[in-house]
């Protein structure tokens, strides 16, 4: 399963990078495969419990410092698939290259 999520602190001004870094730190410390880009952080795990625990900790890290938190989450639930973070991108790149 892959979960892409975005945690946004509200009520702290426009510069939120420091707060978001705390959320990303929780994801990276989890040991699960992950990728962060300008809009979302994606994590891959084998179960809802495993992945949602990381999301919960990331939200809690921001919530500890901000008066309000917004969470956007999207999940790709596909039992038995591993390394989806890499393989899905590789498939698109292969098509773009005309292979």
UniProtKB/TrEMBL annotation:
Gene3D superfamilies in alphabetical order: 3.30.70.930
Domain Thiamine-binding protein: 3-93
Membrane-spanning ranges: none
Pfam families for the chain: Thiamine_BP
Family annotation (InterPro entries): MTH1187/YkoF-like (IPR029756), Thiamine_BP (IPR002767), UPF0045_domain (IPR051614)
Similarity comment: family membership: Belongs to the UPF0045 family.
Cited NCBIfam families: MTH1187 family thiamine-binding protein (TIGR00106)
Protein name: MTH1187 family thiamine-binding protein
Organism name: Streptomyces graminearus
């Amino acid at each position: 399963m892959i979960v892409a999520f975005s945690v946004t602190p509200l009520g702290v001004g426009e510069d939120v990078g420091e707060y978001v870094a705390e959320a990303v730190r929780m994801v990276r410390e989890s040991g699960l495969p992950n990728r962060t880009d300008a809009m979302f952080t994606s994590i891959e795990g084998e179960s809802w419990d495993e992945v949602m625990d990381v999301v919960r900790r990331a939200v809690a890290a921001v919530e500890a410092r901000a008066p309000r938190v917004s969470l956007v989450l999207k999940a790709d639930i596909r039992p038995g698939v591993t390394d989806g973070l890499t393989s899905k991108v590789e498939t698109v790149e292969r098509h773009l290259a005309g292979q």
